[in-house]
Amino acid sequence: MAVPSSVSVTPTASPLFLRENEVRRGVELLFFGYTRLTRAIDEGLAEQGLGRAHHRALYFIARQPDLPISTLLKILAITKQSLGRVLTDLGDRGLVETRTGNVDRRQKLLRLTPEGIQFEAQLFDALRSSLASAYAAAGQESVTGFWRVLEGLIPAKDKAMVVALQKDM
Amino acid sequence: MAVPSSVSVTPTASPLFLRENEVRRGVELLFFGYTRLTRAIDEGLAEQGLGRAHHRALYFIARQPDLPISTLLKILAITKQSLGRVLTDLGDRGLVETRTGNVDRRQKLLRLTPEGIQFEAQLFDALRSSLASAYAAAGQESVTGFWRVLEGLIPAKDKAMVVALQKDM
DNA sequence: GAAGATGGGACAGCCATATTGACGTATCTT
DNA sequence: AAGATACGTCAATATGGCTGTCCCATCTTC
């Protein structure tokens, strides 16, 4: 992709970005795309009596084992109480376990149990199959653009958090 | 994953679409991008004592004036009861009005009142400013890719509905 | 014209997921 | 020793979904 990141944005393209229809198209595609992707895993979650909130926690714990609760709270941007219930449910089902932090003993580090790893992988398969087919249909250049636009939607103050998740890529 | 060793594989070829990190990146960017975009309008909604469910209805009514309720139900994919409460709230605030269909008198066609138009436009401004800056930062080619991938996430049976929204583009 | 399908409204009750505010305990920092 | 931080927990509340049931008006079909 030839986007001159070192150069100031060229004004020639700017009329496009101010037109209402382009914005509405993005809003709608994001709405439908996001909701359809999340629906792909509802069935698997329901089998365990879990909801989407549980999956979000499961997902980020899978992504960053030994994640402290405070970090997960920042990622999910929900309250401690809301997350508490979710983690209790996941713990009760033997999907998530905690260990006391060795650097800071106040922390509880979250990780998936073997059963949790397997369950998350099963849910992830549904996400992968949806996204992989969308990627394949759109082509690699489109995927890069897809990422770039979404990155632009994330406020600067949150960007470090997202980058941290992807540092191993 | 079995890659035929007789074929030379470039790092950008099809295996890209099966690799876990690319999928996880998409999942995460969609999550953060979508949630951040929706947060952009929460404040404006709260001023009216409304929530995101109200905005979704408002948005699609703005997009397709004289929309029958049954169509809106398909778009939002929620139950009649859930939508009913939302529409009652919007009607009570004088943002939405209904008229009896002239083709089919059982139908109630939804449209925004002048106040509703103004309010939706105000919320839309927040969406526009977020999306427009993401578009501008990513560049026009990226925007096309962004659309393409999201379109690929929408199941075939829903695609006609989305296209219908955008037929005037 | 009668029967059935469809569009819409309304009742009651339930569930999942989020919120605020307050308070307690263990541990780390200064 | 004092204060900040990480985590847990209580109680109360709001939002936005859901199911099931029943109703009425209107359109379609035979």
Question: Could you write a compact summary of the structure shown?
Answer:
The structure is a homodimer of 169-residue chains. The first copy, chain A, has 169 residues and is mostly helical.
Could you explain the architecture of this structure?
Two copies of one chain form a homodimer. Chain A is mainly alpha-helical. The first copy, chain A, has helices spanning 14-18, 20-39, 42-47, 52-63, 69-76, 80-92, 114-138, 140-153, 156-165, and strands at 67-68, 96-100, 108-112. Chain A has a domain at 23-138: Arc Repressor Mutant, subunit A, CATH 1.10.10. Helices cover 67% and strands 7% of the residues of chain A. A three-stranded antiparallel β-sheet of chain A has the order 1-3-2. In chain A, helix 4 packs across helix 7 (114-138). Chain A starts with 13 loop residues before the first helix and ends with a helix. Chain A binds a DNA duplex (30 and 30 nucleotides) through helix 6.
The residue fraction in helices of chain A comes out at 55-70%
Decide which structural class fits the backbone of chain A. mainly alpha
Largest sheet of chain A: 3 strands, antiparallel
**Total number of helices of chain A:** 9
- Give the oligomer, counting copies of the same chain as homo and different chains as hetero: homodimer
Summarize the largest interface: chains and residue counts: A-B, 66 and 62 residues
Which second-level CATH architecture of the domain at 23-138 in chain A applies?
Orthogonal Bundle
Q: What is the β-strand count of chain A? A: 3
The value of Rg of chain A in angstroms is 19 Å
Q: How is the largest sheet of chain A built, in terms of strand order?
A: 1-3-2
Order of helices and strands of chain A: HHHHEHHEEHHH
CATH topology of the domain at 23-138 in chain A: Arc Repressor Mutant, subunit A
Terminal CA distance of chain A: 19 Å
Q: What is the level 1 CATH name of the domain at 23-138 in chain A?
A: Mainly Alpha
SS strand fraction of chain A: 5-15%
Q: In one word, what is the shape of chain A?
A: globular
Residue runs with pLDDT of under 50 for 5 or more positions of chain A:
1-17
Question: Mean of residue pLDDT of chain A?
Answer: 89
